[in-house]
Design a protein that fits this description.
mainly alpha; 434 Repressor (Amino-terminal Domain); 0% strand; elongated
Length: 109
């Protein structure tokens, strides 16, 4: 899926008009229409503003990725984990793996 296709799809899913999206990101609805038709490509700054307006990651907007958005609380925790020593990270990962495995088992039962 191209950027143009993804932009149009997400905008329609979020039920935002081109003109409204244009106002949110500091451009016009006509320019948003050109982006959706693939006639123009936004700068990275404008693309980031579009992603922010939709509440999605820029990566999700411009590429085929799995994650539309990342939970802010989870992101904070990941940043804290990154600060830990390698040994402490191993312990955290082991705990997470065990917990996730238990949750999956409980869903089956």
């Amino acid at each position: 899926m191209t950027f143009a296709d993804r932009l149009g799809l997400i905008r329609k899913q979020k039920k935002i008009r081109q003109a409204d999206l244009g106002k949110l990101v500091g451009t016009s609805g006509d320019i948003i229409g050109k982006y959706e038709r693939g006639e123009n490509v936004p700068s990275i700054v404008v693309a980031a503003k579009i992603a922010d307006a939709f509440g999605i990651t820029l990566d999700y907007l411009i590429r085929d990725t799995k994650y539309e958005s990342i939970d802010e609380e989870a992101l904070k925790k990941i940043k804290e984990i990154q600060k830990l020593s390698l040994e402490d990270k191993k312990h955290v990962y082991a705990l997470l793996d065990a917990f996730i495995k238990q949750v999956k088992i409980n869903k089956i039962l």
